[in-house]
Structure formats: structure tokens, C-alpha cells
Write a structure and sequence with these properties.
single chain; about 525 residues; Rossmann fold; Elongation Factor Tu (Ef-tu), domain 3; eight-stranded antiparallel sheet; 12 helices; binds guanosine-5',3'-tetraphosphate; Peptide chain release factor 3; protein biosynthesis; translation release factor activity, codon specific; GTP-binding; translation release factor activity, codon nonspecific
Length: about 525
């Protein structure tokens, strides 16, 4: 390592980009990698499906569908900082892994398509970030296209997501008439389609252009000045502490595709995004990243990355200290000591072997079946466990059986292991004990089916019973089976807790009106 360990830790910036599919997350990631020198070409990689750095073809299913099942980790250096970007898959590959990835980051960048505003997937991911109280930075993308009015977008942030915002910059024009942004934070105007010295134009003390420029005659410039004045007077103030707590989101307008505003965004983001943060243990103690000894937790397990070896990789977010290849760690859950000789890290398009990593970094450990999602790994004499990762309320359900009843033993063994691994959630009907599986994304079922066949040699039959609104019950003793009807069913989860599955929100509300004494709650 080049620097003392504490300096290395301070230089880490570990974050995820959250967005609804097509808002421009992949494009943004490409541009960030370009500035970080991890890729040479600033142009977009056409057909991201074959993009050489972001995807990994570890699983057969990935190849078949041409998507990345896993959340990859990308790393690059910029301005003395080491940046770790954790990918959160969208589309059909959205899964619990996507949520859990957010447990391993210290900040989030929210990409919004400025023509569409806040979309459903963004809301879901935002909620998880909000729950953790991590800083959220917003990039209003696609300003090179006609979109919603900037003030309207900011209002939407506040109304739909309930987070206050501060415009770091403000667009001048839009679409074909996109002239650039009024950079409130750096006191300058950043011009679109102008390279070289005059890319940035200074502002005077009144907040107007300090140099003569034809733009001052345009209605777009005048409108931007007026809106900025309004924001100065009636908008939120920039407050570093509130940004750090995730109460105020700094908003940047730009265009990832045309590479406008990305570098300014990156520099400002790196300035305010936190270095690795402490994490809580089960006993409510905080583990300080600088406390010396190695500790971390597993937020994801990826199986069969290499079908030839049937290997599994456990992804560890390092919370404190540093990792050295060959070191021994303990998994307190099973009181087992394990020598970490084989580790892997994801840098650009290679799976590289990592020799050293520090708090804030993500490493992959080869796993022969020792680890579970949520496990703590500690070095030296440490002995504690980090607080449990949250469980997420599934939305999709299938009824599942083995095609061949003779395989029922393998079937149950496979399900048990995959459920423990956090790949899928397990439920059973009362009395008949039929197996139901729940997931937050369709892909989890496909992965389940594929792995049952390939790893446990069991072909399964899955009957889709559609999306349900799942609710757990505080006062189980008061629940009667007769309370269920056409639009709801009562099942048990893997811990034998009762769960209502409602057909939709309407059925949930109807139930609430009819049985006000039954206290229902959902997981995240
Ligand atoms: P995602 O990862 O969030 O799903 O989004 P992605 O980056 O793949 O972008 C989705 C589409 O939006 C892509 O177009 C991409 O080129 C476009 N896009 C991203 N950023 C901008 C922007 O700043 N301005 C404009 N105008 N478009 C943007 P596509 O048609 O799906 O793919 P392609 O054929 O352009 O590659």
C-alpha cells in the first residue's frame, strides 16, 4: 500500500448509483470510469449488454439473458480518492441483492430522467437509502432533451420522495437550446458544447455573467437568473450536515450522454460524499473504520461464478482495519476460523486478485459453503456481530413443487440452502404446507429454478400466483383463519410467523377497515 492505512481509509468513497431503468445509470458509470482513467473511451459502449467492464458472464443465466445478475463493483482513483461504485441492477434483474447492496455503501447517487421525473424503481431504492440515513446526491439527467421544468423536478423530489433539495447548479435552456448550467456552487456558468478556456464563465457579485456574452440576451439566461434568484430567496440553504444525514440532497443538472456536467458533479460529489462510516453491532456498539483490527460483513453471495468449479463468492464490505491476503478471520456465527487465501476484487473487466484492501472496500471471498448473507467476519481477537441486514417485503409469489416427486428430499434441501443464502424467501400455506416462494424481482425465481436444476438436480414446477401485498402481524393471537377471503390468504414464513398475502392495496385497506384491531406491518 502506498499510504499509511488510515490515510488509505480516508481516501475511500463507496457508493451506489440508483435509478429507474433507462435513466442513464450505465451511461453515467461509463463517464465516471472514463474520468477515473479506468476506460479510455468517453463514447458510450453501444449495446451495454456486451459492455466489457460492467457485466460479468459468470452465470449461465447471465449469458442466456445477456444481463448482469450480480451487482458488480467498479473501482478507480480520482483526485487522490479511491472510488468504489457498487452497481445496483435494474429491469427484471432487480432483486433483494439490489437492496442489500445499499447496505454496503456510504452514499448514493440518484439518477433521474428529467423528462420522466421520479419513477417507481427510484422510489423503492430511495426508501432504502433514506432508512439508512445515507447522503443522497441527485443528478437530473438528459438535459440535452426537452424535459420537465427544473423547478417542477425539484418540487417532485420534495413531494414524491419527501427529501429537501438544493440546486448546486441550474440549467440554462433545455434540449436543443441547452446552453449550459448556472453553477451556484462554484459561482460560474458552465457552457455546453464549448470546450477549452471559455467552457467556464465567471459570475460577478450580483450573480450575473461577469463577461460580455451573447447568451445574456437570450430568454433562457434571463429565465435561469430569475429562477436562481427565487431559489436564493425561497429555497433551502446548502447545509453540509444535513447533506451528510441524508436530509438534503444536492441536485445537479446535466447530461451523461453528452458528458455535460459529469466532471463537475464528480468533483463536488467526492468533496461531500463521506469516507467510510462506522457500523453498528448487534449490541449497539459502533465499529470505527479506523479501529485497527479487520472486520466486515457479507452482503451478498454469488454462486457458481465459474460453473467448472462450482464456486461461490461472498462479497464483504470491509468495515474496519485492513485485509491482507492469507490472513485468518473468524466467523462469529459459527465460531469458525478461516484462512483467507483466495480473494477476488472487481477492477474494470478483470477479476483481479486482491492482496490488500481497507475499510470501505469490497472484497470477494471464495466460499465453500461457510458463509451466509449477513455474516460478520472479524480478524484477530475480535468477537462481535454486526446488526442483521434487513429483510425486504417480497412482492411476487410462486407456488413451487418438484416435477418428480421422488426428488422431494433434494427439493427441500435445495430450497433450504437457497433460502438461507438469501436468494429467495420461503413461505408455506397453512395445513396443506404447500411451498410458496416470494421475491422482490422476477429474476430471483429464474435464478432459483436454474440453480435447483444445476446444483440440486431437481426440476421444479412454478405456478405464478402474481404480485401480493405481504403483511406481518403484531398480534398474531388475535388472527383467525376466517378473516381471509377471496382477496387474501394466510401463510407462514420460514420462522413460522403468520403473514397475510393481500391481492392488492385495495384488499389491504378493506381488511384494515374490517379488522381495525389486527396490527399489520411490513418489512422494508
Ligand atoms: P440505465 O443504465 O439507467 O438503464 O440507462 P442507460 O445508461 O443504458 O441509458 C438509457 C438510454 O438513455 C440510452 O439510450 C442512453 O443512451 C440514453 N441516455 C443516457 N443519458 C442520456 C443523456 O444525458 N441524454 C440523452 N439524450 N440520452 C441519454 P438507448 O436508446 O437505450 O441506447 P443507445 O441506443 O443510445 O445506446
Amino acid at each position: 500500500m502506498q499510504k499509511p492505512i488510515n490515510e488509505e481509509i480516508t481516501s475511500r468513497r463507496t457508493f451506489a448509483i440508483i435509478s429507474h431503468p433507462d435513466a442513464g445509470k450505465t451511461t453515467m458509470t461509463e463517464k465516471l470510469l472514463y474520468f477515473g482513467g479506468a476506460i479510455r473511451d468517453a463514447g458510450t459502449v453501444k449495446g451495454k449488454k456486451t459492455g466489457k467492464y460492467a457485466t460479468s458472464d459468470w452465470m449461465e443465466i447471465e449469458k442466456q439473458r445477456g444481463i448482469s445478475v450480480t451487482s458488480s463493483v467498479l473501482q478507480f482513483d480520482y483526485d487522490g480518492k479511491r472510488v468504489n461504485i457498487l452497481d445496483t441492477p435494474g429491469h427484471e434483474d432487480f432483486s433483494e441483492d439490489t437492496y442489500r447492496t445499499l447496505m454496503a455503501v456510504d452514499a448514493a447517487v440518484m439518477m433521474v430522467d428529467s423528462a420522466k421525473g421520479i419513477e417507481p424503481q427510484t422510489i423503492k431504492l430511495f426508501k432504502v437509502c433514506r432508512m439508512r440515513g445515507i447522503p443522497i446526491f441527485t443528478f437530473m439527467n438528459k438535459m440535452d432533451r426537452q424535459g420537465k421544468e427544473p423547478l417542477e423536478l425539484m418540487e417532485e423530489l420534495e413531494e414524491v420522495l419527501g427529501i429537501q433539495s438544493y440546486a448546486m447548479n441550474y440549467p440554462i435552456g433545455m434540449g436543443k437550446e441547452f446552453i449550459g448550467v448556472y453553477d451556484r456552487f462554484n459561482n460560474r456558468i458552465e457552457q455546453a458544447r464549448v470546450e477549452g478556456e471559455s467552457h467556464f464563465l465567471p459570475l460577478n457579485e450580483e450573480g450575473e455573467l461577469a463577461v460580455e456574452h451573447p447568451m445574456t440576451e437570450t430568454s433562457y439566461y434571463k429565465q435561469a437568473l430569475e429562477d436562481v434568484l427565487l431559489l436564493n430567496e425561497a429555497g433551502n440553504e446548502f447545509d453540509v450536515d444535513r447533506v451528510a444525514k441524508g436530509e438534503l440532497t444536492p441536485v445537479f443538472f446535466g447530461s451523461a450522454l453528452t458528458n455535460f456536467g459529469v466532471q463537475t458533479f464528480l468533483e463536488t460529489f467526492l468533496q461531500f460524499a463521506p469516507s467510510p462510516q462506522p457500523r453498528k453491532t448487534k449490541d449497539e456498539q459502533l465499529v470505527d473504520p479506523y479501529s485497527g483490527e479487520f472486520s466486515g460483513f457479507i452482503f451478498k453471495i454469488q454462486a457458481n461464478m465459474n460453473p467448472a468449479h462450482r464456486d461461490r463468492i461472498a462479497f464483504v464490505r470491509i468495515v474496519s482495519g485492513n485485509f491482507e491476503r492469507g490472513m485468518s478471520v473468524t466467523v462469529p456465527r459459527i465460531s469458525k476460523s478461516i484462512k483467507l487465501s483466495q480473494t477476488t476484487q472487481f477492477l474494470a473487466d478483470d477479476r483481479e486478485t486482491v492482496n490488500e484492501a481497507v475499510a470501505g472496500d469490497i472484497i470477494g471471498l471464495y466460499d465453500t459453503g461457510n458463509y451466509q448473507i449477513g455474516d460478520t467476519v472479524v480478524g484477530g481477537k475480535l468477537n462481535f456481530q454486526f446488526e442483521a441486514l434487513p429483510q425486504f417485503t417480497p412482492e411476487l409469489f410462486v407456488r413451487v413443487t418438484a416435477k418428480n416427486v421422488m426428488k422431494s428430499k433434494h427439493f427441500h434441501k435445495g430450497i433450504l440452502q437457497l433460502v438461507q443464502e438469501g436468494a429467495i424467501q420461503y413461505y408455506k400455506t397453512l395445513h396443506t404446507e404447500e411451498v410458496l416462494l416470494g421475491a422482490v424481482g422476477q429474476l430471483q425465481f429464474e435464478v432459483f429454478e436454474h440453480r435447483m436444476k444445476n446444483e440440486y438436480n431437481v426440476e421444479v414446477h412454478m405456478e405464478h400466483i402474481g404480485s401480493k401485498v405481504a403483511r406481518w402481524i403484531e398480534n398474531e393471537a388475535d388472527v383467525k383463519e376466517s378473516m381471509t377471503g377471496q382477496r387474501s390468504m394466510l401463510v407462514k414464513d420460514r420462522y413460522d410467523n403468520l403473514v397475510f398475502l393481500f391481492e392488492n392495496d385495495f384488499a389491504l385497506r378493506w381488511f384494515g377497515d374490517k379488522y381495525p384491531d389486527i396490527k399489520l406491518y411490513n418489512l422494508l
